[in-house]
Write the structure tokens for this entry.
Amino acid sequence: MKLLDNKAIQIAIKNFKDKIRHWQYVFFSLVLPIMFTIMFYFMLGTEELPSGKTAFDYGFPGMITYATAIGTMNAAIMFAGERSSGMLSRLDTMPTGRKNMFLGALISESIFLSLQIIIMFVIGYAILGLYFESPLALLFGFLIAVLFGISSVGLGIIIASMSKTVEIANAFSLLFFMVIIFLSGSLMPFDSPIVYFTPPFWAKQVYLQIVVMGHGLGENLYSSSLIGSSAEVIPISLLGGLLIVVAYTIVFIIIGIIIFQKKTKF
């Protein structure tokens, strides 16, 4: 038995080509994070802190999280569009099936997210010369970002299932995305217990402490990116934080699959 049906791969290729043809996806998924990255880079400056790193070295993991969290909007818009066009209803009567539709979408979104992260890495680490502990740590950070991106796709599917039109899915996913990103402290430090209930916080903090700080999985997480300032150590290890990111990903994908597989009338 094949792990992936050829139909799922074909759908993934089709979805990826459709995303490239629509400049809105490229703008929100690529141009916007790049603009914010450059803006924050010049705002925070390149002056070294007592730790020997710059403020933006600590801030860039939040930009990576921001770029991957956009997958929530992309997935919500795409699946809402398939619902509005009647594609899901047609799939129920065709050999293609919703399973292949879901897998194809998940593959295409994951590939697109990976390309986003690679472009952000090139800008941050190759062009701007930001600090990273080691190539291995950077690879680990890449995997964390992809994992969080996949969870964002699952959340987007859930949002799409509750939206009657593409416009509603777009508006609701954008609102949710921006609120959750700010509450997580990804774009700017936010010292509040609220951060612990936001998926981006765990992905950003694990990434930050492994890639920038060089911490091991057995060391404890900090409450925010203000390490050495007002951030406090919390009784959860980086491994525990990573498992929380994994848990969010699994839960969002499972809920998304359950909702997506329901053959209700669209």
User: Anything to note?
Assistant: The first helix runs from residue 6 to 21. The beta strands are 220-222, 233-237. The chain has a mean pLDDT of 81.
